Amino acid sequence: MELDYDLILEEDFDALCLDVKGGSGAWSMGSSTPVRYPAKLHARRVAAELAVDGGLVYLPGQPEKDLEDSDQPQLFRQRRYFFYLAGANFPDCHITYEIAADRLVLWIPYVEPRQLLWFGSKPSAARCAQLYDVDEVRYASQLPKFLRGRASTTTTMYVLHADQAPDLDGLGSSGSGSSRGGMRINHALLRPAMDRARVVKTDYEVAMIRRANAVSSAAHRTIAEHLLKAPSERDIEAMFQAVCTSRGARAQAYPIIAGAGSNASTLHYGANDQPLAGKQLIVLDAGCEWDCYASDITRTLPIAGAFSPRAAAVHAIVQRMQDECIAGVRPGAVFYELHLHAAAVALDGLLRLGILKGDRDEIARAGTVAAFFPHGLGHHVGLEVHDVAGGLPLIAAAAGASAPGLRLEEGKREMISPQALVAMGNKSLSAQDRERQRLRPNMIVTVEPGIYFCREYLEGYFLSDAAHARFLDADVLEGYYPVGGVRIEDCILVTPDGNENLTTAPKGDELLDVINRGRQGRKRV
Ligand code: GLY
Ligand code: MN
Ligand code: MN
């Protein structure tokens, strides 16, 4: 397919909400005031969460690395915990924060002229001081001496992982590997403290995630405009990437998911290489990063420009799940209760369609609706697309650590089995954990309900299990496999009195209008 770059580059991008202007230079937030990356604010937040009187926080950034057995560089991706305290998005940096003195120092590499000849420069110390709110910018070659000097006055060095403690010539070790030159190395406290700090975003971070959403939303709009001419999933992926790159967002927050037909029922489908012809729907789950901050957006588009009656019915259920759950996002809301609400809407909808059959309460007690809505309603978004959860996952803890089929990895999208759904409904969460799960202003979460018809999953675990099969109408279900799946996903900011949807990609009737305005033009080839 031929990409129409004029269409991609023009449009109404200037009208998008540009809270933070510019690329990787100095930013302004809705005014001409330059805004530096609020590294010091972040460091103070971490210190408050650490709740210690003194000590030194040390974090190395990502070093430059080649691919294995190659002289070609690995794609650079900055370490997120380092970035949170520094704002510097280039290799071979370090950050130190002396807690009692409230002193944040960014350590940057010196670029020799012969390296510069090949790879260009990195920001100078003076430029870094303009861009990042740190107390001082120094060359990393001076870091060992600095740390040696602090060893006599600082009792504890806080690091993220044991293997990130600096290996300093002459600093020595106590023999246990847990000290350097007299400083104790603590690798237990920093990560949980940083997770608690990161889970509530600063205004700067909100602006970044808003910007990532604006770029991704523009890309989703472009896809809708060109959908009727797009031959394959591959063209959708390429076009999405091209729009983001041309608008200054080169990195995607996660691999693009462009799944048509039955591929729409694979949650993290990634091949993106199948033709669209003859398929009903395409699920496009794609979001770029803006200077390390993620967006995460899904739209489900009718490939022919109009939904089939069955696809329309399923899409309407998912839209209702999403609308009602977004309306419930506010300070104090408990996220897993929103998940339970979404599951209840899905249950009622699938009963109406005749896919589920039998007594509603019995179906609810069996958790059978998890066959169709098998993942969590959402997750935090920030420096990671599945961002840190500040100590307690939004949904998993609700079901208890022992619920089968439930992964308890913090911040990740969770597999919700029928047992997990039932456990969640039984509210096995302790009062204390329930309290910790409440949403707070400046958290950003996705709300991303879905209904999927994954034949292998349904046949393997539900149609073959009498406990669930009696609630499923296999004949009715057969007619829904070609629908594949529907997911709708937006990034929602918790505000003091409710929420704000940061995602502006068209959906609902507007999405259908945008798709069908693309009718004037070339046909799919
Ligand atoms: N794009 C991955 C997710 O929605 O969680
Ligand atoms: Mn998501
Ligand atoms: Mn997503």
From TrEMBL:
Family indicated by similarity: Belongs to the peptidase M24B family.
UniProt xrefs under CDD domains: Prolidase
Keywords in alphabetical order: Aminopeptidase, Hydrolase, Manganese, Metal-binding, Metalloprotease, Protease
InterPro entries: Aminopep_P_N, Creatin/AminoP/Spt16_N, Creatinase/aminopeptidase-like, Pept_M24, Peptidase_M24B_aminopep-P_CS, X-Pro_dipept-like
Annotated protein name in UniProt: Xaa-Pro aminopeptidase
UniProt-listed Enzyme Commission number(s): 3.4.11.9
Catalysis performed (reactions): Release of any N-terminal amino acid, including proline, that is linked to proline, even from a dipeptide or tripeptide
Role: Catalyzes the removal of a penultimate prolyl residue from the N-termini of peptides.
PANTHER family tied to this protein: XAA-PRO AMINOPEPTIDASE 3 (PTHR43226), XAA-PRO AMINOPEPTIDASE AN0832-RELATED (PTHR43226:SF3)
Pfam families, per the entry: AMP_N (PF05195), Peptidase_M24 (PF00557)
Catalytic EC class: hydrolase
GO biological process, one term: proteolysis
Molecular functions per Gene Ontology: manganese ion binding; metalloaminopeptidase activity
